[in-house]
Write a structure and sequence with these properties.
Elements (H helix, E strand, L loop, with lengths): L15 E4 L2 E4 L3 H7 L7 E5 L5 E5 L6
Antiparallel strand pairs: 1-2, 3-4
Amino acid sequence: MKVDLDDVISITETAITIRGSRRRITVPSEVVENLKLKDGEKLRWIVFKNNSIYVQKVKSHTE
């Protein structure tokens, strides 16, 4: 996937926590603020064959 860095707001890394069957990912505060995420909102994960991932905020019914 080609990315134009002029379109990028932030690039961050985070760790995955796996405990048994439970998997947790911490969303960086910078991402939460930029996307204006609230508790309970959903993110859509799209995984490509080249192992890249696209994540987007799922629009709520009120947006």
